[in-house]
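Input set for joint prediction.
Command: fold jointly, output tokens.
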Amino acid sequence: MTSLPPPSKVKLGLVIDLDTCVGCHACAISCKEWNSSFYGAALTDVSPYGADPSGPWLNRIHSFEVLPESGEPARTVHFPRSCLHCEDAPCVTVCPTGASYKRAEDGIVLVNEDDCMGCGLCAWACPYGARELDPTAGVMKKCTLCIDRIDNQNLPEQDRIPACVRSCPSNARHFGDLNDPNAKVSQLVAERGGVDLMPEQRTRPVNKYLPPRPRDTLLAPIGDPTNKAPSTNKSPSTADPVKHIFNLVDRFFDSL
Amino acid sequence: MHPAPSLIIFTVFSGLGFGIIVWFCLGAAPMPSWITAVLALNFCITGLIASTFHLARPSRAWRALSQWRSSWLSREGVLALVTLFAFTLLNVMIYFDAATQTIRTIFSFLIALLALATVFATGMIYAQLRTVPRWHTMLTPCCFVAFSLTSGGLLVISLEAAGMGMAKPLLTFVSTLLLLSWALKLVWWYRADKTTLAAAGSTPASAIGLTSADPVRVLDTPHHTPNYLTTEMIFQIGRKYVTLLRCAALLIGALLPLLFLVGAATTPDPIRALILFVSAMGLHWLGLFFERWLFFAESEHVVGLYYKTDAKPT
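tokens >
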């Protein structure tokens, strides 16, 4: 049914830390692997060893360079992009067959692969490019928030989180209930000021992104009059005379 | 957006077919009216079949009729089939002279409304998408309806000219509609040119979740070969090419047909008039193919913000 359900009590989603992500693509690879190796139709790889490999991935990592106009050095931001399981998911309401739906109990947006006719309108409706067509299966595929892992009693406790969260080596991905103010994810969002992507699109995404923290400012070199930091070199009251001699030598060489 | 031939054929032909239905239901079809009806049905059905070529799994297309409560694509499918069924029934009634004239007239009027609603729904499939700001306006389905009426109207005029001769009021009406529809399209283009992604509020910073407005440039893409998103939703077309094609659309779809209509209206020779009417119709349809191609080719989807940015590398 492609009408949106009433808002759910539990809003499962991801929080992705753009400050900590190193752009290693481990999450993208583990997502692709989990969704290709287990039961259910695999994510297609078209010509994987050929010249032009293609095929759907549910999670893709972009890298951007932010060029501050203040003259500070540029910074790199690695950006993992996957479905944000929006509260006002436009991909759900445009679907003509009812294949695209939002689960009422936890808000996860899914595709019923038995009903999908592959028209691609949901992909057109998604601002984040979360949905891709699987050319072999002929259906649209997207992040499932690993519904086949999160409640899977056959997996050890620590594996009952999405594959991408499990595999992130820099702890940049977090999974939880964003409607629960006591959950770790909600606290992260509150502390770091987690944002919605493209809020002007009015999708009200559940996944939040933590923006990069402001950089530490670099100090000027020692000896520069703008360097206000207390310097041990300049302190005359060192008790150790050897250290004092070495400090004098240091200052001599700094002035050269 | 990648201009898919299946969608261009679908929107132009189904618009044309349902436009003919509207004119038929307003009494403009010349006798015998079954010729007009058959043409209308052919164009509608060709258009609908063309749309299935855009599907990866066309065998499931029947499921698209189920979600009319929420989906414009579903509504368009339902309306199209209801209109075509009702139109066929009307023609059967006309052929067997069943029911009274009053009932048939009321039924015709309702079918005309259904046909207009179908074309409106077709336009809404694209206009509903907030992700393509150029399309996201009520002007979009209005343009679809306007062109549906002009393309259908020019066919009906040609049929009349081939038959018993032209009804002057109809010619004046359709000519005016032709002018107005392209004027509306010019307004659409004017608005579309001002509606960049940034003007609609979508910038690389809002797309990535950055809190500053500093320029952003792409450092590395997730993949170095095309994928579904880049093929479907990111289509680059040069500015000069766009201007050329728009002029071509206006020349072929508006200017020449209007000139030919004036020529046809003023010539005493009925054969010459018929040739001019049919040429006007054909040129207008060709112009609509240009216009529809540009509709898709010029559009920008916000997902493009992730793949190309405006900041120049230092």
